[in-house]
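Final report, closing paragraph on structural work. Over the funding period we assembled a curated collection of sequence-structure pairs, and we close with a single example.
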Amino acid sequence: MKTTAFTKTYNKRVVLDLPELMLPEGKITAVIGPNGSGKSTFAKVLSGIEAADDRRAILTGVSVGYLPQKSFPFRMSTEKNILQNGNDPARAAELMKALSIEALAGQSAKKLSGGETARMALCRILMRRYELLILDEPTAAMDMESTIAAESLIRQYCVETGCGVLLITHSISQARRLADRVLVLRGGELIEQGDADRVLNAPQQEQTRRFLEFYGV
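Its predicted structure, as stored:
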């Protein structure tokens, strides 16, 4: 699927200026870059949560699921939270078991820890099939064991549904484990894109090389 080129301005300052981009179906595209590079803003505009400057749709005719960086629990049980995105108790049980929160099914979601809330929110978004799934730092609040389980679920969902996944991540290691393609943002601009192995191991841009070296890659 192809996005349209767009800009996004806050308080007369352009925070994103991006060209047309291809987001392959059945592939995971990771978006990396320094803090303040526009990664989360990109996710919000692409999902339709925020509008681009010209207010045109960035994607048309595509079903989009969006998991924001800060997960939100409704005032109901963990299981009922998950079922808000699809009335399939068997699927909900399968997802909760995969992320080891099945024992919390009947507990108020408002009482979950940050990591448990993140796992609940990931279960909720994976209840439904989308053509594009946008995940903004989905494992940032999770421990290592939960992160590994979550990454396995994300990859499985991508393969089984043929959905394109856009993964915003601060973790270069996570991009290495999951991504098929990588987009590198800096200062609101796309400075490099391509096959994940090539971008992460042999970047063409000096700015990308410096960024990867700084983060220990």
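The mean pLDDT is 96. The chain has one domain: 2-71+130-214. We thank the funder for supporting this effort.
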